Amino acid sequence: MKKFAMFVTAALMALSFNALAYTLSGTPTQIPQDAMQYCAGAQNFWVCVDTFERQNK
Q: Signal sequence span per UniProt (predicted)?
């Protein structure tokens, strides 16, 4: 049962990052797959994504 709960929690977190990612202005944000993989373990996810996008234009 614990494994099922952890799976559901991980799935909901993944959905929240992908489908429901909004900026402060309320517009949807597209996060590149490369940035998701690069910033997965970062302490501040959005700062990491912003830095990654500026470095890889």
A: 1-21
